[in-house]
Amino acid sequence: MIPRLPLVASVTALALAGCAGGHATALDAGADGGLDSGPVDSDGGPGADGGCAFTGLFIGGDGDDLVQALLTVPQGVLVGGYVNGVLGNTNIEPDGDSRGFVRLIDTTGAQRWETTFETSGSDSVEALAFDGQGHILVAGRTTGSFPGFTNGGQQDLFVALLDAETGAVQKLVQRGDERPQHPRAIAFTAGTGPGRGPSSTGASLSPLADPYVPSNYAHSWENPFVARFTDLESATTTSYVADRTSVPDLAEGLARASATSTDFLVSGVLTGGPSRGLFLRRVGLDGSVRYQVRLSGTGLESPGPLIALDDGTLWMSAGWIRSTGTSDLVVFHLRAEDGAVLDAIDFPTPDMAEQAGGFARDAHGDLWIAGSAGNDSTGLLAQVTHLDSAGAFVESWTRTGGEQDLVTSLAIDACGHVLVGGSTEATANGKADGFVLRAPFPLHER
What we know:
This protein is mainly beta. The chain has one domain (about 55-210, about 220-445): 7 Propeller (Methylamine Dehydrogenase, Chain H). It contains no helices and 29 strands. The strands form 7 sheets. The chain has a 5-stranded antiparallel β-sheet, with no helix packed on it. The protein has a 4-stranded antiparallel β-sheet with strand order 2-29-28-27, with no helix packed on it. The protein is globular and about 50 Å long. The protein starts with about 20 loop residues before the first strand and ends in an 8-residue tail after the last strand. Residues about 1-50, about 190-205 and about 205-220 have low confidence and may be disordered.
């Protein structure tokens, strides 16, 4: 699994109207072979367990499909990704005529709405955020051009604002240059500046740039960056921080430093140089780096998502190579103010290599990590690890029967179920098929 990288952008969500780019569609029952609504009871109503009947979603068509983002909202669970892509042809994927999508699935498994993002090129949805006030932010990438925009050269990033009740696109902006952009995380933040009071909302993105290949050579490798949009209407960017090094550097996690702060926390890895290894960086809205803390030293680690807590601390997930010689899961408990490490807990497994793809905290404060695990004989399998609120191991589950499971995301729904998103190649057509599956953890134990 390739680690995801961060960009930070801030977008004011004022009274917006209109629709550019994506469009909302009605329920698709899967007639096109790729957009299934998921299992529901035969009468279409609440399930036998009181309305918590959603057990999963399978997206399998003629092309390659991937679920890249899961997010719990009051109406259910948002699912984002792409369908009908082509993998294996280029180093910047997906290729082909992929289209990005966001779906709202309620706890019964019924699809309430779907919004698609489609140009003449390849489109994908990478990350989602919700402001608690009826607005959804979508971060994605495209090789095409949405109405009113011109592609900057390769893969441009786009940011869209959706209505949570209907999925209608209220605003969309597209930005890019000759380097491919890869947004991997997005978050709302409090707005600042002339004309925007503390009740205004904004957004932060965490992307990276993919390798820049102008012809038959790599001009530069992946470089993480943090960017901020101050206004979706004008698509203005007030701050942009990018690392420019001679080796691939990755960024993955993004979180607000606190509920009242306009600073952001970014996790990533520097793969070379004297400071190589996992890092946590705190960045201000003006792009200034408040601090950067080095957490390991090999440069072979894979950074994972962040979870910021109300007590001024945060959890960071990752995969690192320590005593076992393979990649093991690790969680860091850190202080947001200065990045001080309060605890580092790893989970060595000599016979398997693991990476963190999704990270969530449930209503009891317990931590859940989803990722891919495997070795040469098993291939990659979906895995979920359950930790208590102090980071101590509780239990884990590994999917059997999978083949090359790429796990990207995790969410805890309103029923307390653990949902995992990604793709698998365990199908006859040899293509990657997207999935959302419900991990079989007994609810009464939590």
